[in-house]
Amino acid sequence: MSVQEMGLGARGDEFYEALMAVHDGLEEPESHALNARIVLILANRIGDVDTLKDLLTVAADG
After folding, report:
1. Structure confidence at residue 26 (pLDDT)
2. With a threshold of 0.85, does the pTM exceed it?
3. Where are the domains of the chain?
4. In whole angstroms, what is the distance from residue 25 CA to residue 58 CA?
5. Distance between CA 23 and CA 16 in Å, rounded?
6. How far apart are CA 20 and CA 18, in angstroms?
7. Other Cβ atoms within 10 Å of 12 Cβ, number
8. CA distances to 7, 17, 39, 45, 61 from 12, in Å
9. How many CB atoms lie within 10 A of CB 39?
10. What is the DSSP letter of 5?
11. pLDDT by position in tens, the chain (length 62)
12. Which of 55, 23, 29, 24 is nearest to 42 (CA)?
């Protein structure tokens, strides 16, 4: 499955809202630290280095 096929579909907005909510009230350094933890947790969950590299490319191309 390609990176482009890994969509949240109709639940994408739900995830985005949850992501924003978990950052509510955090100072910028706390928010950055939370993002780093989230990235590492998701990377461990995905567990495939090639997929993770593809995702980094997609994110960097923004």
Report:
1. 98
2. no
3. 26-62
4. 29
5. 11
6. 5
7. 10
8. 8, 9, 17, 18, 20
9. 14
10. G
11. 455 566 788 788 888 999 999 999 999 999 999 999 999 999 999 999 999 999 999 889 97
12. 55
- Please give the DSSP secondary-structure letter assigned to residue 47: -
**Is residue 26 classed as helix, strand or coil in its secondary structure?**
coil
Question: What single letter denotes the amino acid at residue 16?
Answer: Y
Tokens of 3: 């990176």
> What tokens appear for 9 in the block?
């579909």
In whole angstroms, give the CA distance from residue 15 to residue 8. Answer: 8
Sign of the alpha-carbon torsion through 40, 51, 45, 28:
positive
Residue 32 carries which side chain, given as an amino acid letter?
Answer: H
